[in-house]
UniProtKB/TrEMBL annotation:
Gene designation per UniProt: ATPAF2
Domain of life: Eukaryota
Primary location group: mitochondrion
Homology family: Belongs to the ATP12 family.
Protein name per its UniProtKB record: ATP synthase mitochondrial F1 complex assembly factor 2
Keywords: Chaperone, Mitochondrion, Transit peptide
Length: 285
């Protein structure tokens, strides 16, 4: 039987992190506080495991403490596959906890606590707003090289999603972007409504990273891989770098970070839709 305790962490957006570990009957006068989400703290546990709780959900255990959300809820995910992904993040931490690398944990916290108190309809509406300013739909008139690059690289993705969902989106060089037909919005609304709340949380995260519904859906549907989608989302920036050069370390860091967030969000969508049990050990010696 697991010892009763509380483990609280905050991992939402750019908010600060705060962790408190309080076994039953013991209280600490101060908490470990951090001003930014990029802060680190000394690792305070040795073993990570998962266990199945009531209702078929899966919980994360750090030593014999059960993980809880920033809002104080039990950290319980809907299937074993997602639990393994989260546990792997915690197990991968070494001497210090790098909270900013734990994207799966962050997304689970968001789904469990729902800090903005939104329902599925509101999440779908927010996601669809990106269609009006979608990265691949907004085109430039000059320079010629970038115009051609956008046409050659973005048009295939745009044509794919129009054919895949039988919709019209189009592209425009107007600052207002293309005028999206209501029929297109309704088609996507119905499609997104088929996702559960957890999957929508991940999908919305991917859309905001790429600033594109087109690229996000192409990746979720496995038409594009993460590297391709990220490069397409940064097409104009990559063009400018080719022309004028760049600060190499900053460019590489931004690229790797975007890939990591996008990959985590995509994996979260697929795993949160997973219904089968993963029958394998969590950790290997």
């Amino acid at each position: 039987m697991l010892r009763s305790s509380t483990l609280i962490g905050w991992a939402c957006g750019n908010a600060s992190w705060e962790y408190v570990v309080c076994p039953r009957g013991q209280h600490f006068g101060s908490a470990f506080k951090y001003s930014t989400a990029t802060a680190e703290r000394k690792k305070f546990y040795q073993d990570v495991s998962i266990s199945q709780g009531e209702g078929g959900v899966y919980e994360i255990n750090l030593d014999r403490r059960k993980l809880k959300t920033p809002g104080g809820k039990l950290f319980a995910v809907p299937n074993e596959a997602l639990a393994i992904a989260v546990a792997t993040e915690w197990d991968a931490q070494r001497d210090t906890l790098k909270f900013y690398t734990m994207h799966m944990t962050t997304l689970c916290n968001t789904a469990l606590d729902n800090p903005t108190d939104r329902d599925k309809d509101q999440m779908i509406s927010a996601a669809l707003k990106y269609l009006e300013t979608d990265t691949v739909c907004y085109r430039v008139d000059e320079p010629y090289g970038l115009v051609e690059l956008q046409k050659n690289e973005w048009d295939p993705a745009l044509h794919w999603i129009e054919n895949r969902y039988n919709v019209t989106i189009g592209a425009s060089s107007s600052i207002l972007g293309p005028e999206i037909p209501e029929a297109t919005k309704e088609t996507f609304r119905q499609h997104l409504n088929s996702y559960n709340f957890w999957s929508l949380t991940g999908l919305e995260f991917v859309i905001t990273q790429l600033k594109s519904v087109v690229l996000a859906m192409a990746m979720i549907d496995r038409h594009l891989n993460v590297e391709q989608a990220v490069l397409l989302s940064r097409l104009e920036e990559e063009y400018q770098i080719r022309q004028w050069g760049n600060v190499e370390w900053a460019h590489d860091y931004d690229m790797y970070e975007l890939r990591a967030r996008t990959a985590a969000g995509t994996l979260f969508v697929h795993l949160s839709s997973e219904s089968s049990t993963v029958k394998r050990k969590l950790m290997q010696d």
